[in-house]
Fold this protein.
Amino acid sequence: MSGAASRREHKTFCDVEGWREVSSARGGKVRHHITFELALADGQILRTRISRPTNNDTYGPNLWSAILRDQLCVSGDDFWQCVERGTKPPRPKRTTAIPSQSLPAGLVHQLIHTLEMSEQAVAALSRDEAIALMTAHWSTPPT
C-alpha cells in the first residue's frame, strides 16, 4: 500500500516498533491525542501524536508527509513494511560506546568554570582525578 495512512495504521506502526505511550503531566491519559515516544540507540528520542479516536480516518497528504519526516523519521516504504509485514524500520545504531567512567555534567561544569580548565584537559581526566581536583579546590581556604 502507499499514500497517507489512517490513525489506526499510525498506531499499529507505533505498536509494532515498540513505541511507549506517554502519559499527561498528571500521569493520566490525554483525551484528544495519544502521544508515543521511541528512544533510539543513538540517544535521539522520537515523539509522535495520534488524534483520538484511533479509527480509519486518513491523514491528508501534506500532514502525512510531515508525520513521516518529522515524527516517525521513516520513509513511506519503511512505514508500510512495518504496518503490513511487521518489519521494523532501520534505525541508527549506537556509534560510540558510553564510557564506563564518564564524568557527571555538573563536575565537568565546575572544572571548566571554577578551575578554568580547558575542555580538552577535562576530557583527559579520569573520574577519580576530576573529583580529587574539585575536592582539593573546595578544601583550600579562600585567600
Remarks:
- The chain has a mean pLDDT of 88.
